[in-house]
Amino acid sequence: MLVGAVLVLLLLGGAGPASAHAALGSSVPEDGAVLQRAPGDVTLAFSESVGLRDDSFRVLDPGGHRVRTGATGHADGRSDTARVALPGELGEGTYTVAWRVVSADSHPVSGAFTFSVGRPSPTAAPADTGPTEDPLTATLHKLARYLSYLAAALLIGTAAFVALCRPPDPAPLRHPLAAGWWTLLGATVALLVLRAPYEAGTGPATALDAGALADTLTARPGVLLLIRLALLGPAALFLVRVSRADRYRRGPLAGAVGGALAVALALTWAAAEHAAAGIQVPLALTSSTLHLLATAVWFGGLVALLLTLRSAASDAATAARFSRVAFASVTVLVATGVYQSWRGLGSWQALTGTTYGRLLLVKVILVSVLLAAAAVSRRWTAVSATAATAVRGPDRVPERIPQPAGGPPVPGPEPEPESESGPKSADAADAATLRRGLRRSVLAEAVVAAAVLAVTTVLTGTPPGRAAEEAARTAAPAGGVLPASVTTIPFEIGTAGRGTVGRGTVQITLDPGRTGDNAVQAVVFGPDGSLAAVPELRLSFTLADQHVGPLHADLVDRGGYWSANTVTLPLPGTWAMKATVRVSETDQVSGTRRIRVER
Questions:
Q1: What band does 129 get if pLDDT is binned at 50, 70 and 90?
Q2: What is the pLDDT of residue 251?
Q3: Which of 110, 285, 334, 403 is exposed most, by the fewest CB atoms within 10 A?
Q4: What number is the average pLDDT over the span 487-515?
């Protein structure tokens, strides 16, 4: 089960980089700006709070040499900004700023842009953002995160199974409790050690750097991992008590202590992932904590039920109790899952148009399969309980037989043994068959649940659809660094003598957005956001600082969108892209946006 889930994790992990969720909203100076005087600092503004590193900024001069910069900090005390001081003697030419910060949900994000002092250089240093992700470090980090999820589910779920389902003999469950505790300890230590190279995008060998490890221990993700390690101490003492045979003497205090430990552990995940950033953070933290606890109670309980069914002391009552607990867990999972999906996606388009949405669809399909397997297990549980009652007979207090006042009791007739082929032996055989069927269905549940945890691990490392859309909206105003080479140009719609009656947009895709031949696709949207048909659409590109252009794209109306197979942009730089839309037989409007074309 573990090997299969890890394979799913690695396959899905290759679908896209595990990037962070903070979107760059603006920069001062803007990307491509030409300044008359050298700026005293560089300031970035993000969509959420970010953490800074010692090497969060690297500034390269026109010759590609690193510029000595001042201290890095937040601008005006705002946690969603980053600022670095520049030396006062910057000469004429084009400078490259590469930055790398850690978003509020603990994932690193990086980027780069350029600005010029006096006049642009004939050539600028490559806008290299630095290492984005070391493959080995990324794989080890994902694996440690998955194992921590798996171990937490096993640990919390097995303890909850012992407390809520009251198996006849909890001794067989000591092994999964111990395995969950030790695995969570090892995975947490691994995450703590790998934190510095993961943030820096370097190899695992840099984890041995004492300075980087010290920085990790004082940053928020590192502090949360330290809290998780501290909670494992009292959790071990509690688990020793839970796994004892005198479980019925624990009382409500032990249950309250166990619940508090489980909530505290779950919060160390919720406070370090998607719920810690974005909208409605307090509600999101509560929902994420409940979601993780419900997952743990269900998945860990499945493993505990499997081990209980394999032991001779198992009974149908334990399975029936778990069935009720699992139903409550599913109810919580559905409620919190719907809220978290809405919060993460932001729109229906993001469900199929973003990596986060597509992964969410995969998770929904797997959860649907999991619920189908759970329904089968629930039916097996009901049938097994009926069969067990038939074998044991109804529960009742044994009848007290009167004894003579003196002397030994009068011996009565010996009961005749029932034939092995009699009704009770047949019922027992049926009960054993039913129990085997229940074990198989529960095993299927556990396997699918492990795959769901794998997808969840990848999902928590993928930018939510809401964040991806926000990045697309804010990237163009920030200075022309356009993700996926997509640009939106607004234009006013009006008629002669009546003024403006609406505002439309043209969405232009330039593929691949680099020097050389590019394909162009353009879609026109009306004021209500629906596709709009226009008589004519023209597009041109101008590189003013090199006196190139305007270069016209020969757009053809394809019935719903406009396209040109080839437009050649010969030089890198910041081009002015102008769209002219004829909205009627007599009126036309234009809009211009700057785009960055790389070599």
A1: very low
A2: 58
A3: 403
A4: 67
Q: Which long-range contacts (CB under 8 A, 24 or more apart) does 342-347 make?
A: 343/274, 343/278, 343/279, 343/280, 343/284, 343/464, 343/466, 344/274, 344/464, 344/465, 344/466, 345/464, 345/465, 345/466, 346/464, 346/465, 346/466, 346/469, 347/465, 347/466, 347/469
pLDDT at residue 149 tops 50: yes
User: Which among 234, 228, 301 has a CA at the least distance from the CA of 265?
Assistant: 228
Residue 500 has which token pair? 């403006």
Residues 568 and 553: beta-carbon distance below 8 Å = no
508, 487 Cβ separation under 8 angstroms: yes
The two tokens of residue 120 are 């642009």
Strand 50-51 relative to strand 93-103, pairing: antiparallel
> Taking Cα atoms as reference points, which of 441, 285, 427, 305 lies closest to residue 371?
441
Enumerate the H helices of 346-407 as residue ranges. Answer: 349-353, 355-392
pLDDT, residue 391, reads 47
Q: How many angstroms separate the CA atoms of 491 and 525, rounded?
A: 10
Distance of CA 522 to the CA centre of its chain: 32
| Gyration radius of the chain over CA positions | 32
Q: What is the spatial distance between Cα 110 and Cα 131, in angstroms, rounded to a whole number?
A: 9
Q: Is 546 exposed, middle or buried (0-12, 13-18, 19+ CB in 10 A)?
A: middle
| pTM of the predicted model over 0.70 | no
List the alpha helices (DSSP H) in 243-313: 251-270, 281-310
Tokens of 438: 């229940």
CA-based angle 300:301:303, to the nearest 5? 65
How far CA 188 is from CA of 177, 222, 223, 524, in Å, comes to 16, 10, 12, 50
